[in-house]
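Progress note, sequence design subtask.
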């Protein structure tokens, strides 16, 4: 069956309309309560520059894990909390400059809109729509994507559970024709240990069914991570990620292409001055695959500097 292609602009409009309708229902229900509730509204601009050094030549999801180069990004964001209702809108643009001459530099732009509603003191429901251009994905060097997802979040004391599900539609830009779509689902558990420290575990499933059969895949990701606050301004993040995926229609000899990876991760984040953030980290990605081009170990290091400018808060 041919995947359903959804125009990113239409999805953004539909998400905005859905958010307005849901918000209207929430306001109608809690209008009297919100007259007595403080409304918190913020707006900001984030500018960042990131350098990546990696030893591989493949690409894996939208992190471009095997590619060295620089990322220069700007994000304009707004959020509003009004009683039980929560809104946010984020627009971003990023320029990816690769050191590999075989890979063309690219601009990627994105817009997301979200609405959340507190059902009780411990449960929140939310809806998010996102449209993005020229993403680097597992199956394509450049793809436009529209995404719609819902989330249920439960938090009680130090315990938090999030369950997310949604659908993604992709239009491939690195070839003359081709579309794909498929589900994504995630469950995450986080336990907070004092101020600034936590551990979490998450399981993610995502799949794409493309009208170009060799681009079809399904994948499972399992990740454990934790954060330790070393000082008021310095955090240490540690993680371990395992992935397993296959491509039913991409053959290596007479067998379908399969691959798995395991990757320990470490990152230090330092906050200083007037909303400046400096972070540096690295990972080793051990891959196992019946595809010789993918069966290798990748070493990856990242250094990033970010500045936030508050417009309103």
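Output:
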């Amino acid at each position: 069956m041919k995947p359903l292609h959804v125009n990113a602009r239409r999805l953004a409009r539909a998400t905005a309309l859905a958010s307005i309708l849901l918000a209207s229902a929430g306001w109608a229900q809690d209008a009297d309560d919100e007259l007595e509730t403080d409304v918190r509204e913020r707006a900001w601009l984030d500018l960042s520059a990131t350098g990546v050094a990696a030893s591989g030549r493949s690409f894996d999801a939208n992190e471009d894990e095997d590619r060295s180069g620089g990322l220069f990004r700007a994000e304009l964001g707004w959020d509003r909390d009004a009683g039980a209702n929560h809104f946010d809108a984020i627009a971003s643009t990023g320029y990816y400059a690769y050191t590999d001459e075989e890979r063309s530099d690219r601009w990627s732009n994105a817009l997301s809109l979200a609405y959340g509603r507190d059902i009780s003191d411990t449960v929140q429901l939310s809806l998010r729509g996102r449209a993005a251009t020229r993403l680097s994905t597992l199956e394509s060097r450049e793809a436009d994507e529209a995404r719609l997802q819902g989330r249920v979040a439960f938090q009680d004391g130090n315990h938090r559970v999030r369950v997310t599900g949604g659908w993604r539609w992709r239009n491939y830009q690195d070839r003359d024709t081709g579309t794909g779509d498929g589900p994504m689902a995630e469950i995450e558990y986080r336990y907070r240990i004092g101020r600034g420290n936590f551990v979490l575990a998450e399981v993610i499933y995502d799949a794409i069914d493309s009208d170009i059969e060799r681009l079809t895949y399904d994948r499972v990701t399992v990740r454990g991570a934790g954060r330790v606050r070393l000082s008021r301004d310095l955090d240490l993040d540690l993680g371990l990620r395992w992935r397993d995926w296959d491509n039913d229609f991409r053959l290596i000899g007479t067998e379908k292409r399969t691959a798995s990876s395991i990757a320990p991760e470490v990152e230090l984040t330092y906050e200083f001055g007037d909303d400046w953030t400096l972070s540096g980290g690295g990972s080793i990605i051990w891959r196992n695959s019946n595809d010789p081009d993918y069966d290798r170990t990748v070493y990856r290091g990242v250094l990033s500097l970010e500045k936030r400018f508050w417009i309103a808060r």
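Residues 8-35 form the longest helix (28 residues). Work on this subtask will continue into the next period as scheduled.
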